What we know:
- The chain has 10 helices and 4 strands.
- By secondary structure, it is mostly helical.
- It has a two-stranded parallel sheet with strand order 1-2. The protein has a two-stranded antiparallel sheet with strand order 3-4.
- The model has no long low-confidence stretch (mean pLDDT 87).
Amino acid sequence: MAYIKQVEAIERTLTLRRRRLEEQSKTPGGRDKMTERQLALLEHGTRAWVEELLALPEGWEYDPGVAWDEIGIDMLVVDEAASFKNLYLPQPREDGGIPKFMGGSGDGSNRAWQLDFRAAMVRRQTGGAGVVLLTATPAKNSPLELYNLIQFIDPTAFYSAGIYDPEQFIDRFIKIELRDVLTSDFKIESASAVTGFRNLDDLRTIIFSKSEFRSAAEVGLQLPRPIVETVTVAMDELQEAKYDKYVREIERILAEPAKPDSGGPSNVIVGLLARLSLVALHSGLDEGTT
């Protein structure tokens, strides 16, 4: 709790989330759609949100006498740091929800917040240093991942630029424009989308102050030369029949009018597309296993 009170990004983000949850709770069935973490934040505030984050899985117990913030760790090195990139996630915006290509929304992952709390203890032990992240993919799915990874190293890194939370990072550095995009029901519509970065000189200054980038050649790695070969194999009669059946099912779903609150047919279609891939390999792969 002391750490959370020191980091404006967390306080601001939780305030915005609680405000949106209060609005959602007033809609029919709004509370029923909330996660346990969201309900904890809505009903009992920040402390309950933290306790839910730190709760052990059912059946687990803490090791007595072993506490991360008491054993004096002064260096934390995290390989594959992109596995912890979902610390802050984008929140719906007033002008049309979350922009396309910004990544999914939500509360962040337990794994990321657990690392953030532990990194904070190491920085407290060392006076601000001691956290090293290694990754080949610092921002693969969302531009906000750059912001998130630097939070583990120094949550005040963006303060000098007047950026105190992830939404301000988005406003300052992310270019959002109207674009024709594919919706969940496989239709084209005009929507806000991330199309690039802006104020790049300022962004580079902050990122390079905390980061070092090296190519494979610079660190002496010999990367294999890719050789691409395409082998075409004809399907047998049973495969062809199943393939046609699934294609007809997809076409039928796309032709039907969308049902209210159904979330669109995208999940069903994605499942059918996966079965198409399976039967193209073997006629029995879509039938499950025993």
